[in-house]
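In the design runs reported in the main text, the only information available to the sequence generator was the tokenized backbone. The following block is the verbatim input for one such run; it is reproduced so that readers can re-run the procedure and compare outputs position by position.
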């Protein structure tokens, strides 16, 4: 959500990615509980299963890939927001308020 709002606000992508990477610091104290929750709630039996650490890790390339997916599917972040049911006027109001 933060990355979406930052992008709509016109924040440089390198800064959006930096903030995304800071998320890791914010969840560090809950990391063990999060890992246990993931193991208990998805079909993964061990942290050694292929792909597990990719699924629970943060890397700049993950945010970049997510943005590419949004672009491919919706034409960009504006299209994504419109896909949520917001109008052009809504989108412009959001951008204006974020940039004020």
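Verbatim output:
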């Amino acid at each position: 959500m933060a990355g979406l709002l930052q992008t709509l606000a016109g924040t440089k992508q390198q800064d959006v990615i930096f903030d995304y990477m800071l998320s890791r610091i914010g969840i560090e104290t809950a990391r063990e509980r999060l890992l246990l929750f993931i193991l208990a709630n998805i079909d993964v039996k061990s942290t050694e299963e292929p792909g597990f650490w990719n699924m629970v890790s943060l890397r700049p390339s993950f945010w970049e890939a997510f943005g590419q997916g949004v672009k491919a599917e919706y034409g960009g972040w504006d299209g994504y927001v419109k896909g949520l049911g917001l109008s052009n006027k809504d989108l412009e109001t959001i951008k204006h308020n974020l940039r004020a």
